[in-house]
Design a protein that fits this description.
extended; about 230 residues; alpha/beta; 7 helices
Length: about 230
């Protein structure tokens, strides 16, 4: 029946002991998801409005807590550099390839700021061209996703094999037009170049680790061979 330390010091809403209702907790979670997805301005305005309202009714303790929350949120935003000055919502997809594998890097930009990044390495089990691989990756990234998962712009290092068909498919998921293109100049081109470089570095690191794994595996097999007299 007692909250943990975080609940006591006001760092958790303590739903486990009923300090907030299920509906209140749902709103907290939705605010958190909205903030991380880049919709920060309305949230900041609302916290500031609540702070002023608490001050007006002389609830200075709550006003001080909200002021501290507001400053913490602003500091968090300052650490997230603006990479696209036009406040764009975009996903930036970069590839680095060799004959056997492909490294993929995706930067999620919301409101002009990088809100997330993910990367992975896939085997080129089929003889796919870079354009075919981009089409396959787009299908993996956005297939079966809700409309809000598809941003207004998708910047790629290479267009898919049939960009018109892929564009129509993306439009259908989002419910509005999606600008799928290879940027040629400016901040978006610079950001794409960075993503592609990241993909190249990830592929090189992956191959280094894999070579190390193979060396260790080979050594282990030799030790087994000696121990068992094989």
């Amino acid at each position: 029946g007692r909250p943990c330390l975080l609940g006591y010091i006001g760092k958790c809403s303590a739903p486990c002991v009923g300090q907030v209702s299920a509906d209140e907790h749902r709103r907290i979670v939705e605010d958190f998801c909205s903030f991380l997805s880049g919709q920060t301005a309305p949230f900041l305005r609302r916290v500031e409005k609540q702070m002023r309202a608490a001050s007006d009714r002389e609830d200075y303790e709550r006003a001080a807590r909200l002021r501290d929350d507001l400053r913490a949120l602003e500091r968090a935003l300052e650490k997230t550099a603006v990479v696209l000055g036009d406040g764009t919502d975009a996903d930036v997809l970069g590839l680095a390839l060799d004959d056997l594998e492909a490294a993929v890097q995706v930067f999620h930009v919301r409101g002009g700021r990088i809100r997330g990044q993910r990367g992975f390495v896939v085997e080129r089990v089929e003889d796919l061209s870079p354009a075919d691989l981009v089409e396959h990756l787009l299908q993996q990234l956005y297939g079966g996703q809700p409309p809000e998962a598809v941003p207004r712009e998708i910047l790629v290092s290479e267009l898919p094999a049939d960009p018109a068909v892929t564009g129509v498919w993306l439009d259908g998921i989002r419910g509005s037009h999606v600008d799928l293109r290879v940027p040629q100049r400016g901040d978006k081109k610079d950001l794409l170049d960075t993503v592609v470089r990241n993909a190249g570095q990830a592929l090189a690191l992956h191959k280094t680790r894999r070579a190390g794994d193979l060396t260790a595996r080979s050594q282990a097999l030799e030790e087994l061979q000696e121990a068992l007299g094989l």
